[in-house]
């Protein structure tokens, strides 16, 4: 599997480029809805760029970990705002299968919004939902900076069966996880479990 490790600076810039695309398309949402957990940070940044404090979230659980996927996503927290007759922008980090976006769209449609648009940082061609706005098309597994710890934990769990801790650390560093975070994770988290 190929990975794309996104840094904080890259993620921030991608969010700004996404904002520019939205503005250029004359998209001014009344409420920005972040899909928890991956969409929270991009939604918050878009809110900042727009100067729009009207944000909401919906929590959809789809992945059990970075590789195990449920058949269908589960809404574990319904939409946290009144959206009737409002222009809604749903934000997630990536449209991978598209099922989380689809679940969010269907749920929000039942609340009577004026319109719904979707935006992501990455889009994969096999997604059942093509976001209205996205920055990069990819087929790689994306690792965002807000999920480095989760990714390290999963890789350790999967690789420890056949690899030493030193080998796992090297693999994580080689794919682009910041070395100081790898070392810190193994030093502080794994030694306390």
UniProtKB/TrEMBL annotation:
Transmembrane segments: none annotated. It comes from the Archaea. This is Phosphoribosyltransferase. InterPro entries: PRTase-like (IPR029057), PRTase_dom (IPR000836). Keywords: Glycosyltransferase, Transferase. GO terms for molecular function: glycosyltransferase activity. Residues 12-149 form the Phosphoribosyltransferase domain. Pfam families: Pribosyltran.
